[in-house]
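Support request, please re-run this one:
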Amino acid sequence: MKLIENYDSVSEIKSVLEINGFGMSKRFGQNFLMSPGAREKIINLLDASPEAKIWEIGPGLGAMTHMLINYFDALTVFEIDYGFIRYLEEAFGSEKGFRIISGDFVKTWKASAQEEGVPDRILGNLPYNSASAIISVLIENNCIPAGMVITVQKEMAQRMTASPGSKNYSSFSMLCQYVFTIKNMGDLKAGSFYPSPDVTSTIITLKPHGLYPGVNSELYFRVIRDLFQSRRKQIRNNLTRGWTGKNIPWATVAMALKLSDISPDDRGENIPVSSIAEFVQYLDS
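Re-run finished. Output below.
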């Protein structure tokens, strides 16, 4: 198998793909990060010691992987494409502390977490068609590393960092901000990748803030889904029609809203995470 010697060379990437018979899958959202400056920036943003356990999601042909191996002692990569899995095994399989998990990350991460514990850091150029599922499954299952550095579609980054009252604020915003402080670390132009995507990508960092340790997370997740089941409807209507209204008496819900200073006539898109967390605490008391 032909291996890459220069990850900054588009022509070499193309040659390796062709010689090894690898096809690029739109289904998997495959785009390789070619910019050496962007790769170095991501590693610096990880802000981790060499002893840290690192998970990389979607390494592809190893543009980030070959750098990570030189920085960290323990690296687990998750790859869904079997052609790339064979390549990674050939290129890095003999490296100490290197491990490949094959298959869809959403389905395979839990076994790895049970075996080796929650990683210290997670990074990845997340596929546009599955990034929200990847982030959600980690948060909802309390797999929370000390830091994440991920590249996502710009529109998703805007949703993750959106403020109450803005058009991008959603249940996904509430989900992410419940656990993490999220920072936009800059956009990457399409030319930073091969093949060049039709969208702009954004590097974001996620660090757990630990603001809501006493909140029933499972109940919080149910409530935020209810609040946005119909974006333009009032909180009263959404909660009544959703899981909350079917499982908790309205008198209890109304009192929790009042104690949290949330008007049932308002809309979920206007309510900050802190108020919803407070509401859930009253609801659960």
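The chain has two domains: 10-208, 217-284. The beta strands are 32-33, 53-57, 74-79, 98-102, 121-125, 147-153, 180-188, 193-194, 201-208.
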